[in-house]
User: Fold these one by one.
Assistant:
Number 1:
Amino acid sequence: MGSYNLNDMTSFASWTRRLKIRHLEIFSTLVATGSQSAAADTLNMTQPALSKWLRELEEDIGAPLFVRGKTLRLTALGAQFLGFCEHVLGEAENISDLMEATRQGRAGRLRIGVLHAVVSELLPTAILRFRADAPNVRIAVTEDTLVPLLDALQRRELDLVIGRVQGAVLEGIRTEELYAEQVVAVVRAAHPLRLSPRPSWVAAREFPWLVSPQGTPMRTRFEAEFVNAGVRFPEDLIESRSVVVNQALLRHSNMITLFSRNVAPYYTTSGVLTELALPMTGTLGPVGLYLAEEELTPTVASFAALVREIALGQVDQVRDHN
């Protein structure tokens, strides 16, 4: 008998297109039981129907898959076909499990956009808790300013964005507020104003300031605090968005800057930088979720619900702190 290879058969298009999952299960059962009668009993089929099916399959392929005898033994081609059956049946089971997991929000992908200025314990905590229940979800995080993040969300390159809620949003995007973001001043631990029990904006004006660019919510808050205190803006300003540069400038100078209360711990945990008790008269406004207006996938909906839950806990903590 000559050698055969499934990959070399020019007639594959006709017979393979008639194959169904059930046919692969029948073949695998024939191999497992070693006889047509036992396989027929296992599959709740009649033996003549099973024999007819196997004969027609071998005719379509153009070669025998079994060596007949007391027990069925696979030919070389039959062994190839068994490998194909096992692969497809395994993938079919995998996709079934994946579809069910995706339906329950435990699989799929999650593409998160986040504004650097609002990165806090909220997102890392949400990701870690989410992965504990849904380890098979592929997560990607993009950090940027709000406009490019919202553009990506509108193009459906992101699934959700966590950022400050401000003004009108793009068509096809909805927002929901999570919490109002409080502001704190941060300086190095050895800053002269740390010696004052009640530092004032008048005194703070005499020091250099590290500020966000014009038009940003943090810059607006910075200016509003000086206006509300009745103090002229400081003249010694450096504008910077760089996390590394900002941290270095604060550590090695008497500069003052403003952070959201949720972001400040990233800078002050080591003890080199610390909060300065300047009195604040307002907040940065709400932090919220940006979501597509259409129905969310179960994965995105589950993650958004978790973010809401964690944000509510942060609100309670801030209320207790105050």
Note: The mean pLDDT is 86.
Number 2:
Amino acid sequence: MMTKRKLFIPIILILALFLVACTSTNKTSTPSTKENMEVSEMTTDVEPNQRPEVNDDPSAQIFNTAYENNQFITATTNELGNPEPTTPADLKERLAKGGLVIIHRYTGSGGSGGESIPGSIDDGQRISESSIEAMTQLGNVYKTLEAPVSSVWSSQYYFVYQHAVAAMGEPVMMNRDLTGSLNFSDTDELERSLQGLRNWTVTPPPAGENIVLFTHQGKFEKAYGYYLNAGQTIIFEPDTSGVPNVIASLSLEQWLDLAS
């Protein structure tokens, strides 16, 4: 009998220790209901604008126009003064220094295939092979001159966006202020957009940077009464006065010559 009792007592002790260990583990790994409520309350108390949000949609900036936007200076006129000034001798140096707003008009469509991107206007036109080559050369001027670019913006029309990407690479952001006027059915919206385009041209870029815009001849003509030819570049040097300051107006060939 003594032998059986001696064996029985250790077994009871082992079982007891096992139960105590299990209970302790459960208490450690599972928060109480009160703790769960406190965590939940902490999460819901965070203000929505404190939560980081990432939007990779290229259409996100489309309606962030320069009309009544306090980040932009308001253009005070719809006239360019002299839209074709004598090209400054130090234009290359100015491009490399930054502080310019550079507008390019696309060269042409005629290509085919490929899906458009979200937020773009797909009228069926696609950039042609010859335009891809021309835009590649256009973009190489920036590289050759080491001209700093803070951002590149394009019309919503997909084939114009294709020109911007072919020239400058990604990312390119689309913006309504650069979209062709034929896409506007609301005359008030069009007027706001034209004012927005003018505001782009009188607002200085970030210090030591250039801003590059790709738009349509018709949109620019409605904004400023000046027609841009295919591949033409017009360069502004904003001085915060609200008056557009054109320092150069170049054909595609003249622009490409800057790389030589």
Note: The domain at 60-257 is CATH 3.40.50.1240 (Rossmann fold).
Number 3:
Amino acid sequence: MVMQDGGLLDVRPGADPGRAAPEHSGAYLATGLALGLYAGALVAWVVTGVADARVGPPAFVEGLFNPLAGPVGALGPQEWALAVALAAVAGAALAQRTLARPAALLLACLVLARSLREGIGLLHPGYRSAYSFEPLGGWTLATHVLGLLAGLVVLCVLLPARTEPGPAAGAWWRGRLSRICGVLFLLAGLVQAAWTVRLLTDGTKGAGAWLAGTVDAAVLPSADAPVTGPGFAALTAITGWLVIGALALNGQRDMRGALLVFASVQLYLTVRTVVGYAVTDAFSAGTHSAEGTLDLATTAYLLAAMTSVLVLTTGRAFSPCQGSTHSWARTRPE
């Protein structure tokens, strides 16, 4: 309240458009708890693995970014990034932020895919028996079951909790910047898909075994830890880039949360690749062949594209709130 012409003028802001509607509060709470619980399970695996390997903090930090530093626990970089993403989105959901909805749905689908892959593997008697021989087999199975339940809870409670923003809330984002991010994601997915096809058709890898390993855990047994392997990681990356990119390009939904989380994870994995190239001097060696040059160009594009998406999705000036009176919000074309 301020005084104006002898009277009181209410200048308090209206309802926060970035906050979930009161009727959806329970859905966001359940989402935060479910994702937070699964994130805690993955963090427990990381901590246990580091303690068992007796890895000090400096070596652990180096292992996070240097793929040649050696194993620093039972889980891999994909699981590390997933744990951080789950914890961050869980916090946003508990804070009732609508930005968490697309990100939580994305992570729920990913967690469900991981658990369903394990379920397919359990259809094989030999793989089921491996759980009884592994000291941590029971904990691995419990983690996958927890992921299945968490993913189902998030999808069931959050899919109906949809609130369409008003015409002035984020219209510029959905109309222009969302499409820019969508194009960047689609190009990344197409390029990565082309590289995957190239690797599967050059005779060094069996395409059938590779594809089977992406959907069947028994092909690449991992009863001692909740990991999925490089094939599943590559397929989910391609699928994520293409699906999220298509939805963002359509511009009908606010995909900022999914774009932000997926770009963050892929940027971390790309930076880790760049560090590995730097350690092995692959930058100079890669320029000696056309394929090596294309690989470096692809890595450079992913680094630039994911960074650009992060800048666009976190820019304050690109998401005007309902009723904003800033000059940029009034003059942006629709």
Note: The chain has one domain: 24-331.
Number 4:
Amino acid sequence: MFSCYSLYFVLIKLLQHGVIIHTFVRHMRLKTGPSSNGSLLSIDARPVNSEIIDHLAIYKSMPFFATKFYGAMATLDIFETLGPKEGQISAEIWVANYQEGHHDKPNLIQAGWSIAPSYYGENRTHFVVGWTADGYDSTGCFDLKCTGFVPVNYAPITPGDTLDVKSKITIKIFKSKDDGDWWLHFARGGKNLAPVGFWPKSLFNTLDSYADHIQWGGYTSSLLGNPSPPMGNGHWPSEYSATFQDLQYINEDGMVYPPIPEHGIQSYVSHKECYQVSRFMTNKFSYGGPGGCTN
């Protein structure tokens, strides 16, 4: 059986499309306890003899449109499980910087919601955050499984907490001018953003300065040969499907500005027979699909 623990300890790499995807480490045995550098909590798992397939329906920053980003934000819909027994359903914001000559080992932070039964032990929707300084090769983790993300007192939510379904949340990731750290703010219903915590700049070697890649959208995973799970709420993009709204980039001064359709943002869908995104209009897009892809 595929374990979502294997899903969460992944190698993130840059495709020719300029997209962050989760590429599973195959035929590996993960040991219980921290890695040699003490930063990555790995989980005991049997070797995975089947290939894991990643599925994406996203919008992303245009290559070379802007060389430096200092954050991103959006408001996204929250949905309950559609019954996956294995694999993952997620919707997230990714903020990354790729090391010169090492595009398979980006500095990356991410936040959103996830349904991952083998990771969380049930089918509820959870608030998920993650970070790495080398594509999850030897650094980083999700939620609070290792030293890295620093939660603050009186936060509106804690990484790993369950979320109210059929609601909206706003996520803002930005680099503070005051301390240089990457901060995460959160709000329910798009109002009253409040700090959840921060990733110290000392965790990173390229993202310590700025980001050069932003992604917003949906993600699922499944075993090769098994039908992929639904994405979003399972509907094709429409007025009834899952959405990302109020997409914003953040500049060095902390000011937000929207992506410019066709010039400042572009779509990418990995399996169009199972998932899709709508056109990006009025600073919003819908995404999702019924799944069912087996390769």
Note: Residues 1-17, 22-48 have pLDDT under 50 and may be disordered.
